[in-house]
Amino acid sequence: MTEHNRRKQLIALGAEKLADHLLALSARNDEALSLVISICANPDEFVTSFKHKLTQLRSQEYWIEWDETSAFAKRLLTMCGQLGASAIDASTGFALVVEFIECDEYIMESCDDSDGEVGDVFTGCLTDLFHTFAKDVEDRDLVMDTLITLTEDDQYGVRDMLVEGSHKSLSDEEMRALVVRLKAMIEAANEEDNHYRTRVMIQSLAKQLGDIVLYEESTLKMYGNLSDESLLTLARLHIAHQEYDEALKRLKDIREGYHYKRNELEREIHQRLGNKEQLIALQKEVFDHSKRKEDFEALIAVAGEELREQFLATEVAKIEETHLLQLTDLRFLIDTQLFERAERYLLNRADQIDGDQYFSLLPIAELLLNTDCLLASTLLYRKLLESILRRGYSKAYGYGVEYLCILDDLDMRIREWGGLEEHSTFKKALQEQYRLKRSFWSQYKSTNHTNIRV
Fold first, then answer.
1. Least C-beta-crowded within 10 Å: which of 179, 229, 285, 291?
2. Which of 162, 187, 205 is the last residue of a domain?
3. Are 279 and 302 in contact (CB under 8 A)?
4. How many domains is the chain built from?
5. Residue 404 included in any domain
């Protein structure tokens, strides 16, 4: 259910039922109680109460440890919720949000925000509140001046999203007026000044305005060249203006080699232009890079179902011709249910299997076991077991015992070993090589093999 539909259903309940539910919730939840108090308070009472809370934040002297910071962030979010739900006018709300943001020095210096939860309050909730109130403030010059001041004085990196959301509270005309102000600031300042933050603001405003010339100009003045990311942004701006040839030119300037974002934009352009051959080539590039089944299906969706067998046969032949073991190739064979080919692929590259790749190999071993590819699963479980014993990783001995029990049971099911060393020979060599791993062998001897599912 969408938020819009949920809102309609809540409105349909009526004020009385909503009031009853909210009061019941507030009796069990302090945050809900605080919200109810904020909603019911008259504007003057709310402002006085909120300013007192900000004063407490500024005067806080105790250090908040890392494990307490999450609760502190929730406290700040609760304050944001109270401010957003209050009945104060836009100008008052705007002033309180600005004062809240200006508390960043006291807030950030009083806690260990290693996980960024407190910073997220500023870049998320507080930034949204800033623009929510700002769009309705009558003094538009005040809004623009405040936006400049807050961004220019960002000492903790938590105000940088304010300018990114300018379009939420400023019209295009106002954003252009803001650009003029920022350029005037640069011209009036000392030539030795960096002006970095001012230019970043201009660049961001240009991007939001869709102004290609201004974006390129501001980027070149900041960095002296166009990075891959700025070229991608310029391409997106050209696409928004339906200037597809220009967008492709920008993308061609990106460094050579596979580039996911470039490929994505090129596909979008050729999709809009209806260029099927280019789309097939680009989607093939995506698949060649990932070897994911999902990307193969996307390729077939573009090329046509009639080409499925042709593309699949070509890819399988290419995989089998390559002598180097690639887990992505193996995974593709499995995902396309070519289990016998996957087994043969593994057996032919047995000496390249790295048992230390536990997280990649174990799911494959289990899947091959469940599809009766017994030789391949035997090979993988052996590699995993050898890795545990070779590293003397005692914490994983329980898993190693399980793998050896699986191998014991597989021995009873395999009739032809097809060049693979028989289990009895493998086990004897294992016992000799790792005879000093007494803890492992003790666990193995005491294990009830019937509890191991194969």
1. 229
2. 162
3. yes
4. 3
5. yes
Residue 447 lies in domain? 353-454
pLDDT tens per residue across all 454 residues of the chain:
676 677 777 788 787 777 777 777 766 765 666 666 666 667 888 999 999 999 999 998 889 999 999 999 999 999 999 999 888 999 999 999 999 999 999 999 999 999 999 999 999 999 999 999 999 999 999 999 999 999 999 999 999 999 999 999 999 999 999 999 999 999 887 766 668 899 999 999 999 999 999 999 999 998 999 999 999 999 999 999 999 999 999 999 999 889 999 999 999 999 999 999 999 999 999 999 999 999 999 999 999 999 999 999 999 999 999 999 999 999 999 999 999 999 999 999 999 999 999 999 999 999 999 999 999 999 999 999 999 999 998 999 999 999 999 999 999 999 999 889 999 999 999 999 999 999 999 999 998 655 554 4
Question: Facing residues of 64 across strands?
Answer: 111
On whether both 325 and 412 belong to a single domain, the answer is no
- Kindly state whether residues 334 and 368 are assigned to the same domain: no
For residue 357, tell me if it sits in a domain: yes
Query: Do 298 and 363 lie in a common domain?
Result: no
Residues whose CB is less than 8 angstroms from the CB of residue 418 and which lie 6 or more positions away in sequence, other chains included: 347, 375
CA nearest 147: which of 192, 238, 208?
208
Cβ pair 85, 59 in contact under 8 A: no
Same domain, 395 and 290: no
Residues 6+ apart with CB under 8 A from 275: none
